[in-house]
Amino acid sequence: MKKITFLLVAVLVLCFVIPNTFAQNVKGVLAGINMANVSGDDADALTDPSNLMGIAGGLFMVKPLNDNMGFRAELLYSQNGVLYDDIDPIISQMVFGGAVEEMKMKITYLAVPLLLQYGIGTEGSIQPIILAGPYVAFKLSATQEADGEEDDLEDVKSMDYGVVLGGGIVINNKFEITARYIMGLNDIPDEDADVEIKNKTIQILAGIRL
Q1: Phi and psi based region of residue 68 (left: phi greater than 0; alpha: psi -120 to 50; beta: remaining)
Q2: Containing domain of residue 115, as a range?
Q3: Contact indicator for 195, 161 with CB cutoff of 8 Å
């Protein structure tokens, strides 16, 4: 797994540091927010899950395939997870052994979306774009915070994967804003936990093309 992560990072970094080889490609930086949550049969085991706000950011590169279509690779630091509040006292006693009103599960990933980007042709300075494709993400850390006390989560899988769907606009071929719905297809806990919970995230990113 570490070799795969290193290879993906190395390829994307090379795309930025060797300008002559990749001169025809579009490159840039991204930064934005995640509204992270979870789905699955056991997502509401404690109470209804709420969005957990996090940050996301990193690098992107677009290789043109034709006048409208391009292959887009990104390398993103992404904060995911879920917020559980208003936990039922009986459930809290069973799960935590005491009264806990709020619990946050925080997972950070190094995410690698591999997307097709389609630009809708316009004559003005604003071009709409559509994004779609898979992603793979590698866990950097995982913690559980309950009433201010934070502990490491050991039973979280080291890798996540899923699909990305979204769109946005490119302004003057220099700036871009995109919104994505990210649907995880891999359960977050290890198989031994026998719990079905997957990541789902609404992500908003602003980018500058370099």
Answers
A1: alpha
A2: 2-209
A3: no
